[in-house]
Amino acid sequence: MENQNKVSFEEVIGKRRSVRKFEPGKTVGNSVLENIVDCGRWAPSGANTQCFDFIVVNEKEMLGKVTKVFLKQAQRLVDYAKGFPAVKKSYLANTVAIIIVLGDPRWKVCFPQASSEKYKDEYSLNNEAIFLCSLGAAIQNIQLGVAAEGLTSAWLSGGGEDTTNSELSKLLGFPKWMKAYGTIPIGYPAETQDKRYRRPLAQCLHWNKYETKQYRSHSQIDFYESTLRPFAMYRDIEKIEHWKDFEEKVGSWGSSFTTQFSNSSGKLEKEEDFSKPRSEGRATRMRGKN
């Protein structure tokens, strides 16, 4: 007989949230955590290398030590990554477990290697992409496993920073040349979380070829980085046009964030240096402060 309580895959995806408010005093059994990690184990990976390991931290003392590492990481964001809308990580004290997803770079040797000097850089860069995509798949599978168990989580990418990774390596005993690309705190949500902002499906879905009218311009990305980002990151409303202060926050960019065609001209732009902001918005100015 079919399980009437079975949750569809689409419902699991819809339930996944990045939550930073957990109920205190809760616990969860090891079998539940094993089920969650097993979801990560089944993630696809380049050449089936399974280039990941999972450290589950659920003992109270160790949870406290890992939390201290991330409290320091959060303060470094405030001090040295000015302009980024960082959040305090004190909520980690109420997690039932923290899963560290380690990437093992030795496995990249199993990916396609260039046999011609001409393609050496191309394959090297692509192998790095394969490695990171494999880890991202494992992290996403774990988050979906968390949602399927009726729990909630977040994805802390800060563990991959060299300073934080070095501290985690010393604390948890993994080789420092491995890296904690994903840190996933797990808990029971303290309050109901609605869906975060998402682009309209029609804007990011392209049929048979890239629709240039759905292209997002350099200026639109600059506006998001300098002005809209702190609100889009943390507000629990899926459709940006439903914000009470939509017109105030989005202004003339309204249609670019709410309709299918964010680029009515259909013109594409030349590649630029996308590794750093190109605008003079609020976030950029904050970075320039001493």
List the helices and strands and how they pair.
Layout: H1 9-15, H2 30-41, E1 52-57, H3 60-80, E2 97-103, H4 120-148, E3 152-153, H5 162-172, E4 179-187, H6 201-204, H7 218-234, H8 246-250, H9 254-258, H10 282-287
Antiparallel strand pairs: 1-2, 2-4, 3-4
Q: What does this 3D model show about the protein?
A:
There is one protein chain. The protein is α+β, with helices and mostly antiparallel strands and 290 residues long. It has helices at residues 9-15, 30-41, 60-80, 120-148, 162-172, 201-204, 218-234, 246-250, 254-258, 282-287, and strands spanning 52-57, 97-103, 152-153, 179-187. α2 runs antiparallel to α4 and α3 (60-80) packs antiparallel against α5 (162-172). The chain is globular and about 55 Å long. 23% of the residues are buried.
Brief digest:
The protein is α+β, with helices and mostly antiparallel strands and 290 residues long. It is built from ten helices and four strands.
